[in-house]
Amino acid sequence: TCPARHRRRAKGFPLRFEPDPRPAPTPLPKSTPPVPGEQFASLIERAAFQHGAAIGDVLDQAGVQRSPSGGVALYGAHLEQHDLHRVATVLGVTPDSIRRTLLSEYEGTVLEPGTLTVPGGAPPHRIARQWISVRASRACPACVIETDGAWQLDWKLATTAVCPRHRLFLACTCPGCGRQLRRGDTGKPMPAFPSLVPDPFQCFNSSPHTSTGQQIPCRHDIATVDVGEPLDSRYDRLVTAQEMWLAAAHWQPGWVAGELMPARQWLRVAHDIAALLNFGLTVHHLDQQGWLFPDPCLDGWDRHAWYRDRQRSKGDAAPSYTSPPTDSYTAAIVVDLVV
């Protein structure tokens, strides 16, 4: 028995570890290990697709709440330890492999510590300001095909513009529904269409039916999304810069002005430089300095600068210079010039 002083101390406090009232999770017939670097939503969809099951059924089998903290945008952001073990049991993998699929992996680098893991942490709009997408995702169609439908967690970073492996710009928008990839169904709990069997190779955004107007999955083939031709050797600097940004997101130190900095400090400096670019950089400046970028990047930055100057001239709402790039083409300019 424990000493009396310990019994007295525990008398007025609830148990630290309360029994889990949920039924024990049942493993699926086949295990579904995450592809290295995969995001959580993609993993659940592949497991459901592999078993011909609905997304909601897989989550319900694990007993995991579909919309953590009551927010529609936090699906795949963070799981408590007991939920990690439940999902791992259902998928037949280790809890640590599930943890690496969550946005909370970026805490301490891209995200401020405690943003997702501390109860009552930052709301979705504040998370987005930290240069990470809590809901949508970019994609490299070639990677999706090669990995049997796996979507990379790094594609949710605002500064992931290029796939270093295939040297392709990442796709941002689905040509079928015209919305950001993996945007789901705005205003409704994630995931979208939890009662349907997903296809990881298709867009699963909500899209109005042509005749009835009812919301149905878009189902556009991701493999057919046009991302242009692979970048040639003229853009080696951009590809190298992209690798540096991704390395910093995963705790690798980076060089700035000849000084090696820890990842978090490097990213803070990089974001400050990006804010200066957002403040006044124009395509004319790029031409004057002889910076080489593909035409889609220049067109994207021209639109960005026009919108920025328009907001500035209105005077009723100051533009947010610290906001992240909205697409892979404008992100490429930030990624390259900051490094």
Structure characteristics:
339 residues; 12 helices; mainly alpha; globular
Give the gist of this structure.
This protein is mostly helical. Helix content is 37%, strand content 5%. The protein has helices spanning 4-11, 40-51, 55-62, 81-91, 95-99, 124-128, 141-146, 236-249, 263-280, 283-289, 295-314, 328-338, and strands at residues 162-163, 168-169, 206-208, 215-217, 254-256, 259-261.
Structure description:
This protein has helices spanning about 5-10, 40-50, 55-60, 80-90, 95-100, 125-130, 140-145, 235-250, 265-280, 285-290, 295-315, 330-339, and strands spanning about 160-165, 170, 205-210, 215, 255, 260. The protein is mainly alpha-helical and about 350 residues long. The N and C termini lie far apart (about 60 Å). The protein is built from 12 helices and 6 strands. Helix 8 packs across helix 9, helix 8 crosses helix 12 (about 330-339) and helix 9 (about 265-280) packs across helix 12.
What percent of the residues sit in helical stretches (DSSP H or I)? 25-40%
Head-to-tail CA distance between termini: 62 Å
Number of helical segments?
12
Q: Largest sheet, order of strands side by side? A: 1-2
Shape: globular
Beta strand %: under 5%
Calculate Rg over CA atoms: 22 Å
Structural class: mainly alpha
Low-confidence stretches: 1-15, 68-73
Biggest sheet character: 2 strands, antiparallel
What is the mean predicted local confidence, pLDDT?
Answer: 85
Q: For this entry, what is the oligomeric state of its chains?
A: single chain
Number of strands: 6
Task: Give, in order, the helices and strands.
Answer: HHHHHHHEEEEHEEHHHH
